[in-house]
Amino acid sequence: EQRDVSHRELDFLDPRAGAVRELVQRIDAAPLPEIVAEEARRQVERLRASSVDSLEGSSIRAYVDWVLSIPWQDGTPSRPDLRRAKRLLDERHPGLGEARDQLLEFLAIQKLGGKPRGTVLAILGPPGTGRTTLARTLAEALARPFVRISMRGIREVADLRGTTHSEPVARPGEILEALRQAGARNPVILLDELELLGE
Fold first, then answer.
1. Opening angle at CA 163, ends 150 and 58, nearest 5
2. Of 38, 86, 139, 193, which sits 20 to 30 A from 55 (CA to CA)?
């Protein structure tokens, strides 16, 4: 009880102490990889030396909040269901035999134990032919979350991957936002509307 009273008094006298202690507790409780936890603690140490309400302090807190919001350990295991995938593809995309067969072949390889890391599939076709629903069907067949990123308005790589958090106007990219939105570290991410890139 004396310790809690002391902490409250310190928080009243120095808002940094409470903010720093809260962040340290959240970092310790989060299932972060060790290298990520070390970097987050290093940033918290920087916060001790700065004002919580300063631009640098706000930037550090935003960075640590983002690190803690990313699903580091929540990977969804891939369980390809070929029968369900075939049924969904037949229902949603009648007539797209070649695209259906290629997706089923990809899922069959996954089911047989092929685990290509970071597989990138290109789904080509004019607007309105079902590229998004093909990708959504793939996600359903893999039992993974599905996230769509529109490439309209993406003007540089930093829009996708984010900017360095040490910059004054640092921001996370669309990929990190997609991971946070999906709540899993291995969702199916569709980079849609590539033809509108930069518009």
1. 115
2. 38
18 phi and psi angles, rounded to 5 deg: -65, -45
d(CA 136, CA 101): 16
Cβ–Cβ under 8 Å, residues 58 and 168? no
The tens digit of pLDDT for each residue in 43-61 reads: 888 887 776 667 777 788 8
List the beta bridge partners of residue 148.
Answer: 190
Is 68 in a helix, a strand, or coil? helix
Residues sharing a CB contact under 8 Å with residue 125, sequence separation 6 or more, in sequence order: 131
Q: 60: which 2 tokens?
A: 């550090």
Provide the token pair at 185: 């570290």
| Paired residues of 59 in beta bridges | none
- pLDDT tens-digit readout, 52-106: 667 777 788 888 888 888 888 766 666 677 888 888 888 887 777 787 888 888 8
Distance, CA of 147 to CA of 74 (rounded, Å): 16
Q: Find how far residue 89's CA is from the centre of its chain.
A: 27
SS3 158: helix
Report the alpha-carbon distance of residue 184 to residue 169 in Å, rounded: 27
Beta strands in 86-194 (DSSP E): 146-150, 188-192
